[in-house]
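Example S7 (structure tokens).
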């Protein structure tokens, strides 16, 4: 009876036994035995156990035949266990260690995929979203012909939408704050101006966003409110600016539900500008 057969029989006995099998295997000095047990854990969906063993084994496996597989399997076990931050770091470590390895393409893709799975609410810090975007872009640069390229591209659009939504929520918040002065900084004189700047910058960065019309509505409404709340010195110029913005909105979004708002603003602006 050879060594592999003995290991297989021992593993079968352990998996049919009690829950203390993992601790028993960890105490073993037979690294091949431990590694095969870790693979069994992974195959059976026992990702916690697989991570526990593989985390200890990857260092031992360095320079050995199973080094690549053990590191990639650890990353995948972390991913399946929904520890996405750890998974992304391990996939990245694999790709940096084995850029031409057996699992390099998958590992590069899953660096971004792991961060994608932990994408935060648009209201929160978007560091992981930006990290995922960079990771997917790197993947497509390294593997332009990959069968996973289309999937990465789709995820990129979703991630970018998350960043756009964050900008929209920020602009909307400024608009809703309106005449409140408690949060005004030295660079702007009102929340309406902050709304305009935030929305315009978002449109420059994401010109083809699905939220383009909504940003434009905020800009139009903010410019009108800014004109209404301006000093006499700035009042005329701002009403003219608001009127131009309304015409621009009507030209770009002739079917918008906000066209009536734009037309109402134009009529009010003309009463001030006399145009």
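Recovered sequence:
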């Amino acid at each position: 009876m050879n060594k592999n057969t003995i290991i297989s029989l021992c593993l079968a006995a352990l998996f049919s036994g009690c829950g203390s099998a993992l601790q028993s295997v960890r105490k073993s000095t037979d690294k091949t035995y431990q590694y095969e047990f870790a693979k069994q854990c992974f195959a059976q969906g026992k990702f916690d156990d697989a991570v526990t063993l593989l985390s200890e084994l990857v260092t031992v496996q360095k320079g050995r035949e199973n080094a690549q597989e053990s590191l990639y399997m650890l990353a995948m076990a972390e991913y399946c266990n929904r520890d996405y931050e750890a998974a992304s770091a391990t996939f990245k470590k694999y790709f940096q260690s084995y850029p031409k390895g057996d699992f390099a393409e998958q590992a590069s893709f899953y660096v971004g995929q792991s961060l994608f799975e932990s994408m935060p609410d648009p209201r929160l810090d978007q560091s992981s979203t930006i990290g995922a975007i960079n990771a997917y872009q790197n993947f497509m640069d390294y593997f332009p012909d990959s069968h996973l390229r289309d999937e990465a591209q789709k995820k990129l659009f979703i991630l970018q939408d998350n960043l756009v939504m964050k900008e929209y929520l920020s602009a909307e918040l400024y608009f809703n704050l309106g005449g409140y002065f408690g949060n005004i900084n030295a660079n702007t004189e009102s929340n309406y101006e902050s709304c305009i700047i935030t929305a315009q910058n978002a449109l420059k960065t994401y010109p083809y966003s699905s939220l383009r019309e909504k940003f434009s509505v905020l800009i139009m409404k903010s410019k009108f409110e800014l004109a209404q709340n301006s000093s006499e010195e700035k009042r005329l110029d701002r009403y003219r600016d608001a009127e131009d913005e309304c015409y621009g909105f009507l030209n770009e979004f002739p079917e918008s539900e906000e066209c009536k708002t734009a037309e109402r603003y134009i009529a009010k602006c003309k009463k001030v500008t006399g145009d």
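Notes on this example. Residues 1-19 have pLDDT under 50 and may be disordered.
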